[in-house]
């Protein structure tokens, strides 16, 4: 296959030299050779080939079918590789994005999903628990989360088969079994752990950057009818474990330096391990956009999240739990204060539906402000619903 050299990127391309996300790709002439690529404009740089040509010390780390060895190498290596990649951008070894296949970029170790948007938690609380306080008493004191199913995390573009399960609406006399009738999306932002931490060594807020490699887009597909019947008292289970989609591109955390922003004002004093009042701004200004069948339905603002990714990591490890390379955690549904900023159909339709139909295609995109007015693109996470 010919290798192209991309011409100058169009003005404002969100995949310029300030972005440079990593993914894993194959080409039609070498379908059995997945390797690490870097997105640049509408092209993918074959980082493995460029590294080999330049005699880079990181050639082996980049000629891999998953990002995990690079993730495990730690922050000094992440920074050195990113600097070297920048020097390869005017060389050969590019493939048009339209000619490659993108794969799940990392082997997921453990997967955790949080519940960190005050707007989402309030809206869902009102719909699911109309006779109780919308926010539970613990909500402002710790980032609530649940353990998801790492083995069902799939890459963007993977079809999502409508799940089967038990449903029982409050008015039904007994549960029934069948295909989910309330299939929903959740627009989220994900964080990929690189550097591990041994057991009993909690990660303080200030060490977030040492451990988290990068950021991606997430769709936490949710079967609301299954979820509402099964979740008491232990939380989400089969209603969310059938599939969770992630974008094919993992953008290094350093690309979001100009997008750092202060999280919302904390209304309750926090225990010291979560107190970020003196820390660097923990929020990130990422603007999400969700479309169904080509029509934009909502624009959730990640900057509005109450709990930050650094607080989530600190909380996840404060009990002594270890951290592994490839651990993956999602922010929780991103919902802003506006009705056109909510991150799922449950909120958008106030619990009444309609939900996803077979054949619907969902696309979540996102970007953040970069240096000098540039944009940092997060790509997209897509999925089409297939009848079960
Ligand atoms: O309030 C509930 O019972 C559950 C709400 C969710 O579906 C939460 C979830 O997956 C976490 C999130 O994405 O914010
Ligand atoms: Ca979720
Ligand atoms: Mg899920």
UniProtKB/TrEMBL annotation:
The keyword Calcium applies. It is an enzyme of class 3 (hydrolase). Keywords: Calcium, Hydrolase, Magnesium, Metal-binding, Phenylalanine catabolism, Tyrosine catabolism. Residues 112-384 form the Fumarylacetoacetase-like C-terminal domain. Its EC number is 3.7.1.2. Its cofactor is Mg(2+); Ca(2+). GO terms for molecular function: fumarylacetoacetase activity. Pathway: Amino-acid degradation; L-phenylalanine degradation; acetoacetate and fumarate from L-phenylalanine: step 6/6. Residues 20-105 form the Fumarylacetoacetase N-terminal domain. InterPro entries: Fumarylacetoacetase, Fumarylacetoacetase-like_C, Fumarylacetoacetase_C_sf, Fumarylacetoacetase_N, Fumarylacetoacetase_N_sf. NCBIfam families: fum_ac_acetase. This is fumarylacetoacetase. The lineage of its organism: Bacteria, Bacillati, Actinomycetota, Actinomycetes, Kitasatosporales. The gene is fahA.
